[in-house]
Amino acid sequence: MFDTDAVEDLRALVALSCRILAATGCVREITGHVSVRVPGTDRILVRCRPPQDPGVRFTITDDIHLVGLDATNADLPDGYALPGEWPIHTELYRQRPDVGSVVHGHPEASLKCGILGLPMEPVIGAYDPGAMELAVRGVPTYPRAVLISDRKLGGEVADTMDTADACLLRGHGVVAVGTDLQQATVRAIKLETLAELTLSLHSVPGARPQKLSEEDIAEVSGFVNSRNAAKTYAHWTWDYYRHTLGDAADVTRRG
């Protein structure tokens, strides 16, 4: 039996994540989607496409629907449709019990890094520990630019990610995951931060970006991972972006 209030709280968070990701350029126009697993279940709250989609930036709680992993559009009300790339979400949830939330977006810098084959390396430390951690853990690239529209392709993306926190989809976009919605959302933002820095560094003629020493990586990682600091950092960063939305943080209305 679900805690109805908890599910409604999660529904609002998914809508808010969509607005934060749009405001930071991690999702574009009507493309991109977010989901969260209801803790302890295989039920998923996911941003679905309304009959007339005004764009991810204008997501409201009514756009977030509770479904199972085998859901189809027939399970949704009022002309709503699941994301065309719903299998990105389902196959990650099936393969990785550690994943509590999935974000898929189309940010520009990450897209360019994937196309150019630029490596996401740990070249920054205390400047942005969240971005550093992504690079340290590795950001693999799924080599195809197709829509991830069936379970086979979704499984390939999940296999490519393996245990990573984020993945580039070459010529397409990104996937980021987390133990909860806030962490997955912030990881998508930090992946774009890392991509922007990578592009900038490689645009300097003759530049040879220096990777961090193992000692510095260990010291920064040790701080981030102490006392559950990584999750706290993600939640505080989420709160920053929530506050920057101002009135747009009201996910009960479109405008």
List keywords for this structure.
single chain; 255 residues; alpha+beta; seven-stranded mixed sheet; 8 helices; 7 strands
Explain what the structure shows.
The protein is of the alpha+beta class. Helices cover 43% and strands 13% of the residues. It has eight helices and seven strands. It has helices at 4-23, 86-95, 108-116, 129-137, 151-161, 181-202, 214-224, 229-245; strands at 33-37, 43-47, 64-68, 101-105, 141-142, 166-169, 173-178. It has a seven-stranded mixed sheet with strand order 3-2-1-4-7-6-5. α5 (151-161) links the parallel β5 and β6. α2 packs across α5, α4 packs across α6 (181-202) and α6 crosses α8. The protein is globular and about 55 Å long. The two termini are 34 Å apart. The model has no long low-confidence stretch (mean pLDDT 94).
The SSE string, one letter per element, is: HEEEHEHHEHEEHHH
Number of helices: 8
Model regions low in confidence, pLDDT < 50 over at least 5 residues: none
Tell how many strands the DSSP assignment holds.
Answer: 7
Q: Structural class, from helix and strand content?
A: alpha+beta
**Reading side by side through the largest sheet, how are the strands ordered?**
3-2-1-4-7-6-5
Shape: globular
Main sheet overview? 7 strands, mixed
Helix content class = 40-55%
Radius of gyration: 18 Å
> Average pLDDT value?
94
In what range is the share of β-strand residues?
Answer: 5-15%
Spatial separation of the terminal alpha carbons? 34 Å
Domain Class II aldolase/adducin N-terminal: 12-199
Keywords: Lyase, Metal-binding
Organism: Amycolatopsis lexingtonensis
Pfam families: Aldolase_II
